[in-house]
């Protein structure tokens, strides 16, 4: 259908023109329009505007799935109108979520006897999962302290400064102090020794990360467990561990089955994983699994009566879609262990191709590890003339979204670029990206350095003082100057 103009019910002509054959008026941006428009027009307007978004497949900033098989897309669309919370009406969907919880609990080696059902729940993502796990720890600790007649108003969590922002959210929303173990240059994960030193009587859990967001590195959960067992023995406390396996939970079981990071370790009481990262489902699904029933205080569970049977729930939200749960179930049975392993191996190989290509340029330090989440984090060997932020900016021109960010304390002076390798990032794309990065380097080399110009200007202001600086001071200044420039432009680089 083609409309040359919109006619309102009162037949008032529309007075402004939107360049389209469907409508001649631009709908207001921030107020609901008075009148309706034809569905074709609404579609066209929104579709056109969305063209300016980046291409999700080229968004190398994110772990979150951007491709699924058409059969699964169909299942998703078929269930898009199902509210998950209507368990009474959609008992099969509820059953599928329960199957997913059990499959994942088994994958994480939960100590389940024959006929035992796993304790866990589907969430919107790892963030909700972490809120729930954190609440369970907090409540359990409070109950214990009350029993002991001790104060329970100052709970804390010990974690690395590399934690994902959702932990800071949890801490602020639910009034728990985050005690962060600082990083250092060249060591970008939580040091288990330092973490255990920071544990006190008010520590509700130590949160370890399996797949640091910053460089994909796995933290040493086994060492943490062993040190904490010792400390608990000495002090009489029973400080538990939570593993934030948002990105690594669907990597480690397939690529490193021997690595002990999960419920095989006695102090690991809960684990979260993002179904929408390497669980290979589109955004909107996460999981939290508890070791066993005792680790989830009963008073946090709400009981919904479903088909005469009791359906316990523990979530922050009430209504939500069912599609993602169904899609997770599809992936688990469609791929099986073999399929997941093949995909993860493929991602890892592509990460190595990219890493080798970057190393060949001779211009980068690789800050990710071969063992970990398949990603390549790298920084310029010399960023005194041009920075990682410029590389990121220039790559954007060829469509690539590669974030640049500074490391948390005490490694703030280090800036990295990060490329996450997902299933849909093929070897051809990896090779093309290396080519484009090489081109960017050549181009940047021919540009004058914005940074040195800026620094020279500032130095001249400072009475033209010539101070001899160490390499690290120069690096810090460069990073700070660039960070300021970015902040002035109000540009943010999100990584998730
Ligand atoms: C992505 C991520 C999160 C947050 O997960 P969402 O599923 O996006 O809510 C938390 N922790 C780590 C380590 C992550 O990588």
Average pLDDT over all residues:
89
* Helical content class: 25-40%
Number of strands: 13
Small-molecule binders: pyridoxal-5'-phosphate
Notable characteristics:
EC 4.1.1.15, Aspartate Aminotransferase, domain 1, Glutamate decarboxylase, alpha/beta, seven-stranded mixed beta sheet, Glutamate_decarboxylase, binds pyridoxal-5'-phosphate, Aspartate Aminotransferase, domain 2, calmodulin-binding, 13 strands, 3 domains, 496 residues, calmodulin binding, four-stranded antiparallel beta sheet
What does this entry look like structurally?
This protein has 13 helices and 13 strands. With 496 residues, it is α/β, with parallel strands linked by helices. It is globular, with a radius of gyration of 26 Å. The protein folds into 3 domains: 1-53, no CATH class; 74-334, Type I PLP-dependent aspartate aminotransferase-like (Major domain) (Aspartate Aminotransferase, domain 2, 3-Layer(aba) Sandwich), CATH 3.40.640; 363-488, Aspartate Aminotransferase, domain 1. It has a 7-stranded mixed beta sheet with strand order 1-7-6-5-4-2-3, with helices on both faces. The chain has a 4-stranded antiparallel beta sheet with strand order 10-11-13-12. It has a two-stranded antiparallel ribbon with strand order 8-9. It has helices spanning 39-50, 70-78, 91-107, 126-147, 165-173, 192-198, 221-235, 252-255, 323-361, 388-396, 427-446, 450-461, 471-488, and strands at 119-123, 156-160, 177-181, 203-209, 241-244, 268-274, 286-290, 302-306, 309-313, 364-366, 375-380, 404-406, 415-420. The longest helix has 39 residues, at 323-361. The protein binds pyridoxal-5'-phosphate (PLP). Pyridoxal-5'-phosphate binds next to helix 4.
């Amino acid at each position: 259908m083609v409309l040359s103009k919109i006619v309102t019910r009162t037949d008032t002509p529309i007075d402004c023109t939107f360049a389209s054959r469907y409508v001649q008026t631009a709908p207001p941006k921030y107020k609901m329009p008075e009148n309706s428009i034809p569905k074709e027009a609404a579609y066209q307007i929104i579709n056109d505007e969305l063209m300016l978004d980046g291409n999700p497949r080229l968004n190398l900033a994110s772990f979150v799935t951007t491709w699924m098989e058409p059969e699964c897309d169909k299942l998703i669309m078929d269930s898009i109108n199902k509210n998950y919370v209507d368990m009474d009406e959609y008992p099969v969907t509820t059953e599928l979520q329960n199957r997913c919880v059990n499959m994942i609990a088994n994958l994480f080696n939960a100590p389940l006897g024959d006929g035992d059902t796993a304790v866990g729940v589907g969430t919107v993502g790892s963030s909700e999962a972490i809120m729930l796990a954190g609440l369970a720890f907090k409540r359990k600790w409070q109950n214990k302290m009350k029993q002991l007649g001790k104060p329970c108003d100052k709970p804390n969590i010990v974690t690395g400064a590399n934690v994902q922002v959702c932990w800071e959210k949890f801490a602020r929303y639910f009034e728990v102090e985050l005690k962060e173990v600082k990083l250092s240059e060249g060591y970008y994960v939580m040091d288990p020794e330092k973490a255990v030193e920071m544990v006190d009587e008010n520590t509700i859990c130590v949160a370890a990360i399996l797949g640091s967001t910053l460089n994909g590195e796995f933290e040493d959960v086994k060492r943490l467990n062993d040190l904490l067992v010792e400390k608990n023995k000495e002090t009489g406390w029973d400080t538990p561990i939570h593993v934030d396996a948002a990105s690594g939970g669907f990597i480690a079981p397939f690529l490193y089955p021997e690595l002990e990071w999960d419920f095989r370790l006695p102090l690991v009481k809960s684990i979260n994983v993002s179904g929408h990262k390497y669980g290979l489902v589109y955004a909107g699904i996460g999981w939290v699994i508890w070791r066993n029933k005792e680790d989830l205080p009963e008073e946090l569970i709400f009981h919904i009566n479903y088909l005469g049977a009791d359906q316990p729930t523990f979530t922050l939200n009430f209504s939500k879609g069912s599609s993602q749960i169904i899609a997770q179930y599809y992936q688990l049975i469609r791929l099986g262990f073999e399929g997941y392993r093949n995909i993860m191996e493929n991602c890892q190989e592509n990460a190595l191709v990219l890493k080798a290509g970057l190393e060949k340029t001779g211009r980068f330090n690789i800050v990710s590890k071969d063992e970990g989440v398949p990603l390549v984090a790298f920084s310029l060997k010399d960023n005194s003339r041009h920075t990682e932020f410029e590389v990121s900016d220039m790559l954007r021109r060829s469509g690539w979204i590669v974030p640049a960010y500074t490391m948390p304390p005490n490694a703030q002076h280090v800036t990295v670029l990060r490329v996450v390798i997902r299933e849909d990032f093929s070897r051809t794309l990896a090779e093309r990206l290396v080519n484009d990065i090489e081109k960017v380097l050549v181009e940047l080399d021919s540009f004058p350095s914005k940074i040195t110009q800026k620094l020279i200007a500032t130095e001249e202001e400072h009475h033209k003082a010539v101070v001899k600086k160490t390499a690290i001071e120069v690096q810090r200044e460069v990073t700070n100057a660039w960070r300021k420039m970015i902040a002035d432009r109000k540009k943010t680089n999100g990584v998730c």
